[in-house]
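Hi team,

Filling in the usual template for the complex we talked about on Friday. All components are listed, including any nucleic acid strands or ligand strings, so the model treats them as one assembly.

SUBMITTER: L.P.
PURPOSE: interface mapping
COMPONENTS: two
RESIDUES: 888
SEQUENCES:
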Amino acid sequence: MLEHTIDVPVLASAVEAQDSADAADTLEALSGSDAAEVLGKMGVDSAGEALAEMVLPLASSALVALIGDDIGFAAAMLESMAPDDATDLLQELDHADRESVLAEMHPSAANGLRRLLDHHEESAGGMMTTEFLAVREDMTADEATEAIRRSAVDDDPHFTFVIDWEGHLRGTLSLRRLLIADPGELISHICNREVEAIPPELDREAVAREFEKYDFLVLPVVDAEHRLLGVVEVDDVIEIIRAESTEDANRMVGAGKEEAVYSTAREKLKGRFPWLLVNLFTSSIAAIVVLQFEGLITEIAVLAVLMPVIANQAGNAGQQSLAVTLRGIVLEQIRPNRAMPLILREAMVGLINGMLGGLVVGLVICVVGSVFGDASWRLGVVAALAMTAALAIGTFTGSSLPLLMRRLGFDPATASTIFLTMVTDSMSFFVFLGLASALHSWLA
Amino acid sequence: MLEHTIDVPVLASAVEAQDSADAADTLEALSGSDAAEVLGKMGVDSAGEALAEMVLPLASSALVALIGDDIGFAAAMLESMAPDDATDLLQELDHADRESVLAEMHPSAANGLRRLLDHHEESAGGMMTTEFLAVREDMTADEATEAIRRSAVDDDPHFTFVIDWEGHLRGTLSLRRLLIADPGELISHICNREVEAIPPELDREAVAREFEKYDFLVLPVVDAEHRLLGVVEVDDVIEIIRAESTEDANRMVGAGKEEAVYSTAREKLKGRFPWLLVNLFTSSIAAIVVLQFEGLITEIAVLAVLMPVIANQAGNAGQQSLAVTLRGIVLEQIRPNRAMPLILREAMVGLINGMLGGLVVGLVICVVGSVFGDASWRLGVVAALAMTAALAIGTFTGSSLPLLMRRLGFDPATASTIFLTMVTDSMSFFVFLGLASALHSWLA
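RESULT (copied from the run log):
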C-alpha cells in the first residue's frame, strides 16, 4: 500500500457521482495502484463503466493492481461490463492474471469471455460484443415485443436482429417498424432480409472501412454457417479510425505501427532500429554524391555551408507534397489513373516555391556577400538555380512516391519519409555541387 | 456534349442497380461531365443517394455539370436528398450556381437549405440534418406511436426526441421504452430528461470529441433558448475524424490544414510558402553553425561528406519520436504532469539507437578507410560519438517539442517537423564539427 495524500473513500464517492467518461478522466490522472484503490471503493457497475472508458494501457495497469488488491471485486466488475470491453482489458493482462480472474467468475460468464479471447484482438471477432437483441422470425409482433421487454440487454438499439431456431441470422427489424406493426403480424413478414454481415476474422481496418462506406451503426458478425456470433458497434470503430490514422504517421518515419507513446524502450528500439539502419544506408547515397565533389569543397568550403539549406528546403517541400498526397490516398480522393495531373501540379508548386525561395537565398547571399568574397552574387545565382530544381524534384518525388508504392502493392506510408529524404538530399547535393562544378571557373 | 465511348443509358441502369456506396465508386471513376450525364439518366432519389456518397470535390464537379445540363433535375435531386448532404454540396458551388438551383426548388425546401447554409461549414450547425423524429411530452404512448407512424422521416432512429409545444428540447425517448410502454402512459413520464445538446456554433472537431468521449450515436443541436434545431449523426462524425487526423500530418510539415490533394496550385502555394520561408530561416541557423567551421572543412573536406549522414539520422530518429508523441497527444494517452518519464525514455532510445548506428558508421569508415587516408579509424570514432549524441538530442527534442508547444497553448503539430529539423541539423553539425575541431590535432 502506498502512503496517500488523497482520501480514497471521499474521492471514490466523487468519482462515482461523475459520468463514466469524466470518471475515467479523473482515474487516468492517478497512478495504477491509486486508481485501483478508488475503483475498489466504488460500486461494481460504475467501476466497470469508468474502467471501460479509460485509455487501455492505464485501465489495464489499474486492473492489474485491483486483481492484487481484491480479486473477487475485479471478477465481479469484469462480469458486469460489456463483454467486448471486458475482453479488451483481459487481452492486456499476462496469462497468470487473466486465468486467476477468470477462475473467480461465474463459469458461464468466464466461458463467454474465453470464446471472445480466442479471436484476434485486431479482428471483427475481437471487437464484437455478444450482448445484442435478437428475436425469432416465427414470432408475432406481440411475442417479439414481449421478448424485448424481458431481455437483459441494457443498450438502446435501434433494431433487433432476427434469427431462426438454430441461431442463423435471417434479417433485421427496426424497432420503429415493430412499434407500428399489428400485434399478430409475423416477424418474418416485416423484417428486412437484406443484411450485411462480416466474418470474425475480418481485420479491424477493413471493418472500419465497411462502417465508413455504408454508414452502418452496427454490423453483425456471423460464422461460416451464417450463425450470429456478435455485433460490432460504431463507437468502437471510431476509436480504430483515430488509431489507424495516427499509425500512418508512425509508419512514414519508420516507427512501429503499433508503437504507442507508452511502449517500452525495448519495443521502441525493436520497431525503429531496422528503419534507422535503412536510413543510414539511404543517407550514405547522399554522402557518396558529396564525396564526388570533395576537391571542389576543399576549394570553396562555403558550398558545405549552403548544402544543408538547399537539401533541407527541398526535403521540407517534398514532405509537404507527401503529406497531402497520403491524405488524398487515405481519404480515397485520388481517382484511379488520374494521378499524373496531380503529380505535375505538385512539381509545378515545387518549381514556383523553389524560385521564390531561391530568390530569397540568392539575395541574402548577395547582401551578406562580404562573408563569401567578391564573387558572392555568382554563388547566389548558383544557389537560387539549384534550389529551384531541387524543390521541383522534391515535390515531384513526394507526390509520386506514395502513389508508386501503392501501385506496386506496398503500403504507401511505410518509410516514405526515409525514401523521400534519400532522393531530396542526394539530388539537392548533386544539382548544387554539380552546377557549382560546371560553373567552377566562373565562380572561383 | 462530349463524344462518348461509353453508352450512357446502359451505364445509368447498371449504376442504378448498385448500392449507393458502390454507385458512388463507379461515378467517381468518370469525369464530372460524364458523371452528370449518367446521373441525369437515373431516378432522382438514387441519383441523390449516389451523389451523397461521392467524395465532395468529385460530387460537386458532377453537380456543376448537371446544373448546366438539366437544372430541373438537379433541383429535384437536391430536394430528395438528406438536407445535411444537400447543404454540403451547395456549399461547394459558386454563388450563381447555388442561387439558380435553389430558385428551381420548392420554396419551403429552398428556405430550409438556406437556413442550413447560414451555419459555418465546419460547425455543428453546418453538419446537422433537420430531419429527425420528435414527439411532444404531453402525448400518451399511443399518440406518440401514431405520430411516429405518420412521420415522413425515413431513417430508423433508435430514439425519438421529446419536445414541448414551443419546440424546446425536453428529453429523449428510446423506441424500446416506447415499445414496452402502456398505451396511456404519458411521454413526459417515460422519457429520459438527461440529454446532452450542443450549440450550432460548436467547431466540428469539438463535436467529434463529444461523440468519441460519450459514445453518442446522435447529438441534438439547440439554440440559446434550447429549441431543437437539428441533429448531428455519428456517420458524419466518422468522416471528420478521418479528415482531422490527416490534417495533423499536413500541419506537421507546414502544408495548409485544409489542403487536399485536389487543391489548386494557387491554394497550395498560399498554404505552403510561408512555412517554407520559415524553414529557410531555421535552416540558415544550421548554415551559420557550419560557417563557424569553414576553415576546418577546407582542411578536412571529408567532414562535409559525413555531415548529412549524421544530421539525416538524427532528423529521422527525432521524427520517429515526434510521430509517436503526437499520436499519444491525439489519442489523449499522455497524462497531465507525467510527460517527463516519456521524454527521458525517448532520449534513452535515441542514445541507444545512436550508439548502434554510430558503431555501424564507425566500422564502415574504418573498413573503407583507404578513401579517407590513414587516420580513418579516428574519424570513425568522432562520427560514432557525434551520432550517439545527435540521436539522443533528436529524440529528446522530437518528444518534448510537441508537449512544450501544447503546454504553451499552441497546436502541437503545426510546423513541428520544421522546428525539429532546425534543432537536429544545427546540433548534429555543432556536435560533429565541434568534436572534430576539438580533436583536430589528433585527427589530422
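MY TAKE: Residues 272-443 of chain A form a domain with the Tetracycline Repressor; domain 2 fold (CATH 1.10.357.20). Chain A touches chain B through 119 residues (CB under 8 Å).

Thanks, L.
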